[in-house]
Specification:
Elements: H1 7-16, E1 29-30, H2 33-42, E2 50-54, H3 60-68, E3 71-76, H4 82-88, E4 95-99, H5 107-115, E5 120-125, H6 131-140, E6 145-153, H7 154-161, H8 171-179, E7 180-188, E8 193-194, E9 201-208, H9 219-231, H10 237-243, H11 251-260, H12 274-283
Parallel strand pairs: 2-3, 2-5, 3-4, 5-6
Antiparallel strand pairs: 1-8, 6-9, 7-9
Helix pairs in contact: 6-8, 9-12, 10-11
């Protein structure tokens, strides 16, 4: 089968099947063999691995994964791509294609079914509009995961790995860093895709922690606090948390806990580290 990382081969298969790109699915297919190699290397795929690929498209990265992994399960939402995948992945017996919306798939069941419940690796070239719900869905549903290696919009990758006090720092940064160690492994310019996106991309690897770096009595509560403090990031924590209807804490109580932590009542959430949010959540 022709290597789809070579632009000519991608164009040929798209023309052959008269494929139309769907804007609603945010489809941008990778056409750069160097970038494909880097993703596979970054994901550290071995014959022992079961890989979940989200959005295989025409099977470009799937081919690379199939050659390295023991098993590949590819979930594709666009049914127009299914006949193309049948053709491009025909030589590979270790690939299963599922036509479904990844946000509706029971990923834990998938790991049980295809990998006997052992941790899987996730690899994906993600549409920008859906990056955060997919990543949070993977972490929060406690799917057994070793790592997530994904191509995302450059600014989203930056947001996942920055620390307090920067403008990109927010709820996503903290959530990712609670569950995993983020590392940007490659920056990818728009000309590596068909059609070209309007923004640069980056490949980021999130290596799942065995156990989170902070001890927190109630994860859900901590994340509710984090979200509330960034919903109105210009406000002080006292006001941001005190005004959030779903938290049931008063401004006085927040001020009191901040004092216990040795902090001023005028601090803002954007200056807080993950450790401080965990401490705040435990004290509240």
């Amino acid at each position: 089968m022709a290597n789809l990382g070579i632009p000519q081969n991608t164009i040929e298969i798209l023309q052959k099947h008269k494929f139309n790109f769907q804007k609603k699915f945010g489809q941008n297919f990778l056409i750069d063999t160097g970038v494909l190699e880097r993703i596979i290397d970054a994901a550290q795929i071995t014959p022992e691995d079961c890989v979940l690929e989200i959005g295989p498209g025409i099977g470009t990265m799937t081919q690379y994964l199939a050659e390295r992994a023991g098993r590949v399960v590819a979930v594709e939402i666009d049914k127009a791509l299914i006949p193309i995948l049948k053709e491009t992945l025909a030589p590979y017996e270790n690939v299963t294609v599922i036509n479904d919306d990844i946000l509706k798939v029971d990923m834990e069941k998938l790991a049980r079914e295809y990998n006997a419940g052992r941790p899987i690796k996730v690899v994906a070239n993600l549409p920008y509009y859906i990056t955060t719900p997919i990543i949070m869905g993977l972490f929060e549903s406690h799917v057994p995961l070793q790592s997530i290696t994904i191509m995302v919009q450059k600014e989203v990758a930056d947001r996942m790995q920055v620390g307090p006090g920067t403008k990109d720092y927010g709820a996503l940064s903290l959530a990712v860093q609670y569950y995993a160690k983020p590392e940007i492994v490659a920056n990818v310019p728009p000309n590596c895709f068909i059609p070209r996106p309007n923004v640069g991309s980056a490949v980021i690897r999130l290596t799942r922690y065995e156990k989170p770096p902070v001890e927190v009595a109630d994860e859900k509560k901590m994340f509710a606090l984090i979200r509330a403090s960034f919903n109105q990031r210009r406000k002080t924590l006292v006001n941001g948390l005190g005004n959030a209807g779903n938290l049931n804490v008063t401004k006085e109580r927040v001020a009191q806990v901040l004092e216990e932590m040795g902090l001023s009542p005028t601090v803002r959430g954007e200056t807080f580290t993950l450790e401080q949010f965990a401490q705040l959540s435990n004290l509240l």
